[in-house]
Write a structure and sequence with these properties.
alpha/beta; six-stranded mixed beta sheet; Rossmann fold; 8 helices; 6 strands; 2 domains
Length: about 220
């Protein structure tokens, strides 16, 4: 029975994703009444702006892979570098999480996929800033994205943010520690995660599920 429920929920999230992206291309907000899904799923979308948490960062930061591992989402992922072209939504115990296509330097001026995705960030309650272990200068990469948010709308810097050091399975313990030390100097909460590290994924899920409780 639980398998059937999970399968139905995945189908609902697929429907939400499809309709979400249809409307996104038209640059309008999601209309919950336009979704052919259950009342429960429709209510999730209706409350989207209040409960959505978002994964942001450079292209190839591992955002889609994380979303796939911690939610019911099924975004495109691959072993070769590419960037998501549309937002993907996933659900974790009624929490809606979005994977936003990679941001790059100049996004606030329309470079790359640009402004239409920065506009989306205005509606969320928590940002997970994903920084890949593969980057040689994680601190510099962090500030590039933050500067783009500020250039577009300084209020984006007020959204609570947690830094995720991703793809830790690709680096040695020494390299991971070095990156973590740099990121911790930013005075933000930092979590090292890998889709191949069950404990780190469970820690991330706990943060997501208790976010509103901690704010209260």
């Amino acid at each position: 029975m639980q398998d059937i429920l999970d399968s139905n929920r995945r189908k609902e999230m697929d429907a939400i994703n499809e309709r979400f992206n249809q409307l996104w291309h038209l640059q309008v907000l999601v209309d919950p009444d336009a979704l052919n899904v259950s009342d429960h799923a429709r209510e999730d979308v209706q409350n989207f702006s209040a409960i959505c948490e978002e994964l942001i960062g450079f292209p190839n930061a591992g955002k889609s892979s994380l979303l796939k591992e911690i939610t019911s989402a099924n975004p495109k992922i691959a072993s070769y570098p590419f960037t998501t072209l549309e937002p993907n939504l996933g659900e974790l115990n009624t929490k809606i999480i979005a994977d936003i296509p990679g941001l790059i330097e100049g996004a606030s001026k329309g470079k790359g996929l640009g402004i239409k995705f920065l506009k989306h960030i205005e509606r969320v309650s928590l940002l997970f800033h994903c920084i890949s272990c593969e980057l040689e200068e994680p601190g510099k990469s962090y500030h590039i994205i933050r500067d783009e948010l500020k250039a577009y709308n300084p209020k984006l810097l007020d959204i609570p943010e947690i830094i995720l050091l991703t793809k830790t399975d690709l680096k040695s313990e020494k390299e991971i520690k070095s990156h973590l030390n740099v990121l911790k100097n930013l005075k933000k909460q930092v979590l090292a995660v890998s889709i191949h590290d069950w404990d780190s994924l469970e820690k991330l899920k706990l943060i997501i599920l208790t976010h509103n409780e901690r704010l209260g």
